[in-house]
Amino acid sequence: MPESSITRxxxxxxxxxxxxxxxxxxxxxxxxxGTDIESQTRALLAQAEVTLIKxxxxxxxxxxxxxxxxxxxxxxxxxxxxxxxLPQGCAPARVCVSAxxxxxxxxxxIAFTAASPL
Length: 118
What we know:
Blueprint: E1 6-9, E2 18-21, E3 24-29, H1 37-54, E4 62-69, H2 75-85, E5 93-98, E6 108-115
Parallel strand pairs: 4-5
Antiparallel strand pairs: 1-2, 2-3, 3-6, 4-6
Helix pairs in contact: 1-2
């Protein structure tokens, strides 16, 4: 695949589920279930694993994560689940910020960048 090729997975009018350029995949996840930070985090991370498989990658190949939390008070609970989910020694670069969510039901959103062979 030439470096200038762009692959869009499930493109919609306003977004694609993932975009791969060169050997780098970009995607964003919001939780599809859950009512508290723990259940939403678990749901979102499970969804991220599915997307990583779609782009030929895995969580050990994450390069960057931008984490948006509705309530910074949820950071400790999120961090515990994040650390449990990541393979040891494979934490990506990351930033965690407080943000207003697009839906009042969302407690978090994560923008991921991962290495991808696609």
